């Protein structure tokens, strides 16, 4: 049972107004930058990870794994160490963003500690117990604020929006614009979600941020479309080349058709020749030739008849030709006699 005093304390510290325009993108970018820089430069990360492991063991419920808290706790520690040198106003804004990240990275893992301040103080106490003094984690003490669900929901989607948008900007160049284009649907998705949320609460800082984001997004889309158009124009054939290519394709197609037809004709001739040879072998050298004898005799008889007719026609033609020549000679002779 959670004590009512704890619940009252959480409710009294609810962050009712968030200046989104002051958090994004500058304060948001500090978090990822701090993690990258400190992982490369800070010594004693193993000690920080050990301290976070002890924190995980202390706050993890029996149903959760303590190791789940090590990585997010380490990143939060690096961020707190990064912002300690900022001005008071920047630290105050950074601690508001830290409140969001603490909820996202720790509270969403269902720890035993109740409320952001309680979990944050638990982290500080454990670090003191193991005498970890490399980093100052007290920088946001008394400045961590509980987040309303609506505020957390907007911060979460803004976080995702700017992750995708910064990737789009990173790859938005002549060589990688296709990668940049792959992030456009996600940017549009999260922008739409946040815009719908703005219509519900009418937060003026959120409106300012969305207008600023939309302007920068449109500028990047103009660049992206220019890269696409340039690529398309470089790889398109001119109209004349297209017509030449079409005519060439047609002539190649016509030649192919002729080649196919010629090949088919040669094949049919060869096929008929093979059939004739097979029939001849069957007739001449096998017993099956007896079945062909009547047909062959009939064909011979028809051929002989045609030959006789041709001979008769030839003889008749020769006789007429002789008579014709004889008559001519007779006419000529008679003319000479006269």
UniProtKB/TrEMBL annotation:
This is Variable surface protein. The chain crosses the membrane at residues 264-283. Keywords: Membrane, Transmembrane, Transmembrane helix.
């Amino acid at each position: 049972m959670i004590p009512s005093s704890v619940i009252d304390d959480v409710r009294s510290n609810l962050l009712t107004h968030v200046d989104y325009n002051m958090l994004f993108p500058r304060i948001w970018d500090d978090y990822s930058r701090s993690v990258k820089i400190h992982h490369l430069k800070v010594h004693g990360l193993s000690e920080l990870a050990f301290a976070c492991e002890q924190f995980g063991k202390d706050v993890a419920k029996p149903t959760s794994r303590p190791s789940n808290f090590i990585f997010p706790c380490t990143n939060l520690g690096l961020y707190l160490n990064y912002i300690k040198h900022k001005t008071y106003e920047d630290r105050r804004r950074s601690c508001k963003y830290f409140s969001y990240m603490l909820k996202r990275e720790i509270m969403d893992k269902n720890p035993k500690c109740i409320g952001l301040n309680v979990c944050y103080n638990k982290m500080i106490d454990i670090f003191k117990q193991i005498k970890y003094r490399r980093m100052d984690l007290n920088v946001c003490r008394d400045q961590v604020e509980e987040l309303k669900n609506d505020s957390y929901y907007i911060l979460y989607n803004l976080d995702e929006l700017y992750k995708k948008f910064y990737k789009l900007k990173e790859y938005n160049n002549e060589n990688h614009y296709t990668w940049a284009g792959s992030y456009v649907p996600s940017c549009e998705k999260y922008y739409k979600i946040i815009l719908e949320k703005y219509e519900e609460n009418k937060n003026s800082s959120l409106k300012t941020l969305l207008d600023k984001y939309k302007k920068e997004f449109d500028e990047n889309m103009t660049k992206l479309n220019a890269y696409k158009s340039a690529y398309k124009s470089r790889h398109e054939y001119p109209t004349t080349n297209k017509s030449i290519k079409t005519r060439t394709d047609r002539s190649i197609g016509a030649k192919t058709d002729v080649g196919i037809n010629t090949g088919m004709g040669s094949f049919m001739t060869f096929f008929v020749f093979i059939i004739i040879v097979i029939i001849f072998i069957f007739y001449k050298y096998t017993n099956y030739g007896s079945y062909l004898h009547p047909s062959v005799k009939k064909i011979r008889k028809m051929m002989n008849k045609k030959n006789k007719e041709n001979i008769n026609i030839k003889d008749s033609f020769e006789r007429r030709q002789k008579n014709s020549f004889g008559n001519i000679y007779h006419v000529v002779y008679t003319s000479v006699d006269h």
